[in-house]
Design brief:
The protein is α/β, with parallel strands linked by helices. It has a domain at 1-156: Carbamate kinase. The protein is built from 13 helices and 19 strands. The chain has helices at 4-19, 34-45, 51-58, 60-75, 107-114, 142-153, 186-194, 202-211, 273-283, 313-322, 324-327, 354-364, 388-398, and strands at 25-28, 80-83, 90-92, 101-104, 118-122, 125-128, 134-136, 158-162, 183-185, 215-219, 227-230, 252-256, 259-268, 291-293, 301-309, 331-335, 338-344, 371-375, 378-384. Strands 4-3-6-7 form a four-stranded mixed beta sheet. Strand 3 and strand 4 form a beta hairpin. Helix 1 packs across helix 4, helix 6 runs parallel beside helix 8 and helix 9 (273-283) crosses helix 10 (313-322). The chain is globular. The chain starts with a helix and ends in an 18-residue tail after the last helix.
């Protein structure tokens, strides 16, 4: 949706789908960098704009896209009707800037579909259930709007269009030989999204899994098949659950450069000290990712290291400094020059040696590991920022994910 030509191309794709007999509801994002430009303008006008007015402003980008797309579709001989989030019945909490969808009452959408119209819905927005104010759902939340609408309308599936041909085994900008994943489970996609893969919004995947909505991720620049995100049971033709070598070992490698690391030094080694540290951080509204506590070896003190979103670092530091006297630690260290690299796959549950393969690949690439975290289907490490790309490539190769066909194409240059 970057420009008029893109809007016309999207309109043609929509009418082609309608022409095949489908009922079509489209959720649209803002054009290009419209949201960023509106935010910059707001900050020029007011250094601290009120959240309510900011939501009123930022939702204009999607409304513009929806109206323009409807015009383009009408010019192709099809009837299209555009709706704002509130007109479409997207009811949310009242938190401006990061509202959550409570319910969708798509009465006007159903009426438009019964009339044979193509429905265009402005994404990223809704209306507060309590205040009736316009709200936004957070950056990237048009994906979530689309899945929520698909669930409320009982759609067969939800297609999400990006500038790559689906979900790949790694970021194509880092690994040109990344392979397209034809199918991926909700569980694996949740881990990929949570660990930095930006192809799908995390809340979108959570909603799709909860409502069991199959999601087809594909490119708006090609007609190639994409990636299906759905409920997958790894079973053979006899219905037996696949185990060991039969299961896919590693599905993909994700990375995230947006985190910071904080180390609280000299924490008294006593019951409840860690709780006090993380209570202070939680009270500041900061989410923690990875945690490591060192064993007490001298003076009955220990050090606690954790990672958190880089944008929350200052709030966390302020909260910890404010609690320093009460907790009794000696100093705080922080590091922004880190990145997280994760390998993800359901095969970890039944296949030994994944950790050894991962860590050996990093060692052979000369990469130092600063922190390690695991889940049932994921292993994550923190490395220096300068080592992130090399770590992704090393892990991708070590688990045999490299494609010889070079099929990973980023059509618009963002990999989103």
């Amino acid at each position: 949706m970057a420009d008029a030509a893109s809007i016309k191309r999207v309109a043609q794709r929509i009418v082609d789908t309608k022409g095949r007999g489908a009922e079509v509801v489209v959720v649209i994002s803002a054009m290009g960098d419209t949201t960023d430009e509106l935010m910059d303008l707001a900050l020029e006008v007011s250094p601290q704009p009120r959240p309510r007015e900011l939501d009123m402003l930022l939702t204009a980008g999607e409304r513009m896209s929806a109206a323009l797309l409807a015009m383009a579709i009408n010019d192709l001989g099809f009837e299209a009707r555009s709706f704002t989030g509130s007109q479409a019945g997207v009811i949310t909490t009242g938190t401006h800037g990061d509202a959550r969808i409570i319910d969708i009452t798509p009465g006007r959408i159903r009426t438009a579909l019964e009339d044979g119209d193509i429905v265009i819905v402005a994404g990223f927005q809704g209306v507060s259930q309590t205040s009736k104010d316009v709200t936004t759902l957070g950056r990237g939340a048009s994906d979530t709007t689309a899945v929520a609408l698909a669930a409320s309308l009982g759609a067969d599936y939800c297609e999400i269009y990006s500038d790559v041909d689906g979900v790949f085994t790694a970021d194509p900008r880092i690994v040109p030989g990344a392979s397209r994943i034809p199918e991926i489970s909700y569980e694996e996609m949740l881990e990929m999204a949570a660990q930095g893969a930006k192809i799908l919004h995390l809340r979108c995947v959570e909603y799709a899994r909860r409502e069991n909505v199959p999601v087809h991720v594909r490119s708006s620049f090609s007609t190639r098949p994409g990636t299906w995100v759905k409920d997958i049971e790894y079973r053979n033709t006899e219905g037996r659950e696949l185990e060991g070598m039969e299961q896919p070992l590693i599905t993909g490698v994700a990375h995230d450069r947006s985190e910071s690391k904080i180390t609280v030094v000299g924490v008294p080694d006593r019951i409840g000290a860690a709780a006090e540290v993380f209570s202070a951080v939680a009270d500041a509204g900061v989410n923690i990712d990875m945690i490591v506590q060192n064993q007490s070896i001298a003076d009955d003190n220990t050090a606690i290291t954790f990672t958190l979103p880089g944008g929350d670092k200052l709030r966390a530091l302020d909260a910890l400094h404010g609690a320093r006297e009460r907790i009794g630690f000696t100093e705080i260290q922080y590091d922004d020059a880190i990145g997280k690299v994760s390998v993800i796959g359901v095969g970890m549950r039944s296949h030994p040696g994944v950790s050894a393969t991962f860590f050996r690949a990093l060692a052979e690439a000369g990469i130092n590991i600063q922190m390690i975290s695991t889940s049932e289907i994921r292993i994550s490490v923190v490395v220096g920022t300068d080592d992130v790309d090399a770590a992704v490539r090393a892990a991708h190769t070590a688990f045999g994910l490299d494609s010889v066909t070079g099929e990973a194409v980023v059509y618009a240059g963002t990999g989103r």
